[in-house]
Amino acid sequence: MEDVWIEKYRPVTVDEVVGQVEITKRLKAYVASGTMPHMLFAGPAGVGKTTCAIAIARGFFGEAWRQNFIELNASDERGIDVVRSRIKDFARTAPIGAEFKVIFLDEADALTQSAQAALRRTMERYSHTCRFILSCNYSSRIIDPIQSRCAVFRFKPLRDDDVREYLRRIAASEGVRVEDGALSAILYIAQGDMRRAVNALQVGAASERVVTADSIYNVTAAARPEEISRILEEAVKGNFTTARGILDKLLMDDGLAGVDILRQMHREVFKLNVPDDMKIDMLFHLGEVDFRLVEGGTERIQLEGLIARFAAEGRKLTK
User: Fold this and answer.
1) CATH number of the domain located at residue range(s) 4-154 in this protein
2) pTM of whole model > 0.90?
3) Please, how many CA atoms are within 13 Å of residue 85, restricted to the half-sphere of its CB?
4) What's the topology of domain 160-219?
5) How crowded is residue 303: how many other Cβ atoms within 10 Å of its Cβ?
6) Per-residue model confidence as pLDDT tens digits over 210-219
7) How many CB atoms lie within 10 A of CB 62?
8) For residue 314, is pLDDT > 90?
9) Pick among 3.40.50.1820, 1.20.272.10, 1.10.760.10, 3.10.129.10: CATH of 225-318
10) Which residues lie closer than 8 Å to 222 by C-beta, 6 or more apart?
11) DSSP per-residue codes, the chain
């Protein structure tokens, strides 16, 4: 499904960007000064990196921003030929009615090492006609020569209050009623990712005009946190059969992915009323099972083995 609501409610100015106060303050200063350096936006998904790039282009170029702005996704076009052809061709042409143009390279950490090396030279050679904005999830994957040429902006996950306010504004504009429990469910699932939050709201509102917590958990294929907590609580009490029954319901009846259940377990472990030593062991085993699932292990076997380990440790604790 296309991100219809995300595009519809995307901020058109830097002032309207949600949550990233310190970053937007610096970006507004660039717009006010009429110039900007090369920039590197680093941070998790859905926190406003692409939105900030588009907003600052609108701030510099106004309604003609599309003529002096190009967006490329490096994960689709990640080879050196793209840097030598498409990016270089755009960078070497003169801007239209402005001092410079902007190239926004999304997911730049997907570029190969050779492509990044070629990009480094292009950024240096055409800086009089072009500015680069690179966006990535992991800045450590960007080579040092590029990082040293950029002003680095580190984005953080959005606060729940900011996401909640934004979702309420969308719901009011679309005439959708959202229950408080549904908002809480969206915030739990999104974890500071605005794109995920808006998509969850849009999908939840597609089938009914009143969005409930049940509809959110159903359409996002996520388990309720209390179900995950109960699996862990029963396991650490030594009640393996009960914990396995809840797990089987999530896997077989609800059709949830094992890796998603595992990630939710990781979040709920810290809330358990057990000694820290046991939490340490549980986190160690969670990490081990996560690796096995990534390597192709069978979800049900690995997760049942995990709760069996928790149950065994729990029985030792109660003796």
Assistant:
1) 3.40.50.300
2) no
3) 6
4) Helicase, Ruva Protein; domain 3 (1.10.8)
5) 24
6) 899 988 998 8
7) 10
8) no
9) 1.20.272.10
10) 188, 189, 256, 260, 264
11) ---HHHHHT--SSGGG--S-HHHHHHHHHHHHHT----EEEE--TTSSHHHHHHHHHHHHHGGGGGGGEEEEETTTS-SHHHIIIIIHHHHHSPPSSSS-EEEEEETGGGS-HHHHHHHHHHHHHTTTTEEEEEEES-GGGS-HHHHTTSEEEE--PPPHHHHHHHHHHHHHHHT-EE-HHHHHHHHHHHTT-HHHHHHHHHHHHHH-SEE-HHHHHHHTT---HHHHHHHHHHHHTT-HHHHHHHHHIIIIIS---HHHHHHHHHHHHTTS-S-HHHHHHHHHHHHHHHHHHHTT--HHHHHHHHHHHHHHHHHHHH-
Handedness of CA 62, 64, 67, 70 (dihedral sign): positive
pLDDT digits (tens, 9 = 90+) for 142-195: 999 999 999 999 999 999 999 999 999 999 999 899 999 999 999 999 999 999
Give residue limits of the domains in the chain: 4-154, 160-219, 225-318
